[in-house]
Amino acid sequence: MKAGVIGTNWGRVHVQGLRKAGCEVIAMMAHDADLVAKIAAEEGIPQHGTELSVFRDCDVVAIATPTASHLNYLQALQDKIVLCEKPLGLTPDNQQQFLALDARRSYISFPFPFLDSAKQLQQLINSGDFGELMRITVVAGVNLPYPKTPVEWFMEDMIHPFSLLTHLFGNMEFLGARQGTGCNISAQLQCQHALVDLLLCPWPQPGLHFDITLIGSKNAYQLRGGFRPDRQWWMEPLMIDDIAHGNGEEAKDAIWIRANHRVSNALIKHQKGEINDQQAMELGLFPLQRALAMEQSLLPLWHALAQYDQRPTLAGNMVWQTT
Fold it and tell me: Gfo/Idh/MocA-like oxidoreductase N-terminal domain: from which residue to which, for each copy (predicted)?
């Protein structure tokens, strides 16, 4: 298959992932003509430009651009196989436009279910070790150097662990939410009659922090990890009834890039017919309809928090080091 990529930053991760999946990456697009020419040359990509016409010979296109641009690109590329960065960017204002998309060959990249730690959780739950779901609590800490509204922070960063929860347990029903100062948000949902607490807050150190607690009728699991600029992504050993099992996932193994590459590989295998729909879903692939259903479960958050201050805010005090 011939592939193209939109975006010169995280898009380079998709270039690598698509090549590892067996694709020939032949085109790259971005709005900055000089920059896309430079990056395309560095990556050995023969075609580049600032218009979507550069993808005319591509079978697959990866969208690695800011969330607000996703809808327009998905609308324009419905004749291609598409892999779009998370999240979709679903809001009450654009919901109908997303629902009108031809979803047959569009997929959203949610790498969290492709982490080794996530697979470990999935295997334990499928084996019966966990029992019936009783309660879920997630703490997501954010300290990143760009402004977003509190709801946007929630949708951009809580969606990481939320995609894993959806993959493991299915869709959820929104119950309510409250907001404190800035991006301090507490949302509660219900899944399989169990309560799900999602807590977003500014984190004191630069990066991202995730703490996921799953309580079942037979066992309890805790998974912690995150991202720091100085050591990238890592996951600590899975705690089973407060005892560490395994070695976790170390930052030196580039675990987030590896998980992203696994998404690309699953997509290409599915499109080639090497795995069926059920196998793709079990791996953690999110076709557009699955991603829509997941993000729709969080759509009431916009209304629930409308009474609070939604001015863009920094989530923490982080400043990127450029030298």
Answer: 2-104
d(Cα 270, Cα 215) in Å, to the nearest integer?
33
Collapse the DSSP code of 230 into the 3-class scheme (helix H, G, I; strand E, B; otherwise coil) and give the result: coil
**Whole-number percent of the chain with pLDDT over 70:** 98
Which of 270, 249, 275 has the alpha carbon at shortest distance from 121? 249
User: How many CB atoms sit inside 10 A of residue 92's CB?
Assistant: 12
Which is nearest to 101 in space by CA: 292, 295, 296? 292
The full 3-state SS of 39-90, as one line of letters, equals HHHHHCCCEEECCHHHHCCCCEEEECCCHHHHHHHHHHCCCCEEEEECCCCC
Q: Quote the tokens at residue 213.
A: 């607690």
Burial of 270 (0-12, 13-18, 19+ CB in 10 A): buried
Instruction: Give Rg (Cα) of the chain.
Output: 19
Pairing of strands 106-109, 81-85: parallel
> What CATH number matches the domain at 116-253+294-315, 3.30.360.10, 3.40.50.970, 3.90.180.10, 3.40.190.150?
3.30.360.10
With a CB cutoff of 8 Å and minimum separation 6, the contacts of 308 are: 150, 179
Q: Could you report the per-residue pLDDT of 42-92, keeping only the tens digit for each?
A: 999 999 999 999 999 999 999 999 999 999 999 999 999 999 999 999 999
Determine which helix (DSSP H) or strand (DSSP E) holds 226, and give its type and residue range: strand 220-228
Task: Judge whether 57 and 78 are in contact, CB under 8 Å.
Answer: no
